[in-house]
Amino acid sequence: MKPAVVIDKDERGNERVRFCFRLPDLKADCYPMPPLNVSMLHNGKPPDFQPQLARIAQFKNFRTIQAAVDHLANRRNQLLYASPSGIAAISSDVSSGLLKCRDHVFANLTLYMMIDPYPERQLFVQQCLNALLPVLERVKPPKPEPTAESGDWTI
Length: 155
Fold this sequence. Notes:
The protein is of the alpha+beta class. It has four helices and three strands, in the order βββαααα.
């Protein structure tokens, strides 16, 4: 069974994004509706995806997924904000990095198009959130911006 993302039209002619699961034993295709309203079980339980997150971290040469998230956040901050030594400059070819970013954006848009149009809770989305939320709780929250009331401003 190898799932594929399919873009087609519904009964009213509106484009939609769906998953197609080919079931070779039945010689049939399965199109769950909504697209991510499927449930995944591993040894009879919903997966927590921790082994997969650990493999991603290891593949990216990080000890933990938390270290990978921290690294990405730091890189983002380096690109967005000037340091005491000045504005960041990129001196190498950025083509491959931009292509990776484009692919990530398209993947996120595809997921969005499979989730947002449907008001009901989709089982697989909930399983992924259940696995992701514990990871996010380990991410350090950003420092709050100084406010005039807090007296943190230096003039």
